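Protein modeling request. Please complete all fields; requests missing the sequence field cannot be processed.
Requester role: graduate student
Desired output: 3D structure, token encoding
Chains: 1
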Amino acid sequence: MSDPIPATFSTYDDFVHLRFERPSPSVLLITIDRPEVLNAANERLHREFSEVWRVVDRDDTVAVSVITGAGTAFSAGGNIKHMLDRAHGSFSGDVYTVQNRYRQGIQRMALAMHALEVPAIAAVNGAAVGAGFDLACMCDVRIAAATATVGETFVNLGLIPGDGGGWLLQRLIGYQRAAEMTFSGRTLDAEEARAIGIFLEVTDPGDLMARARELAAGFAAKPPRVVRLTKRLLRSAQRMELPEFLELCAMAQGMCHNTEDHLEAVTAFLEKRPPAFQGR
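Delivered output (280 residues):
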């Protein structure tokens, strides 16, 4: 019997399929910990991913999050074997039932991650296909081991990207490339994925996590409130016209000018020393 899913998640101890580490005080490393099924998702993992970002956003000590997978895969997406069980499986039920399962499950995960205030880095250590690939696309930055593969593979199973992949991918690499990947359902190796803009960098497998921690440390060294605010502005820019966006920027800049970290940054620059930010 699977563990019951809590009604609310308050601390990192409430999670079962996500493992947490602190490479540094301000960086949270999140590992999908289901290696026996290539980190494929289930109902509980969808719920945990929809809740963990609320916990992270409330945690002022977290400046950057890094996501990776345990074992040899980042995430294989949905469990294909469960799709055959039309009577009792996690994909069973009539149209209305399946629709609600998506709306209350993986789609809540996508919405919660889209609202995440801190930068998220995906360290793709192996296969990231289907919903696993879309999870990587939900992150702000993606780096990969040279052995990684990615694919928007839903069509191969007679499905559409039900978790928002059709919205995410074309914003990442443009409509034409996203259409080709989605219509064909093919998988790409790490280098091709880097060439078309999916990955920022490709590393040797043994260097992946060190590079992810290095990137995270660089982001975390900046004023934490300003980094969160900057991410909010970047997300808002995707749906706003320039005049409205500039109004939002003016308000946000007024906030920044009144922070202690701004004064510390300017003082440190003039004194030619590293700044010491306090998140205030």
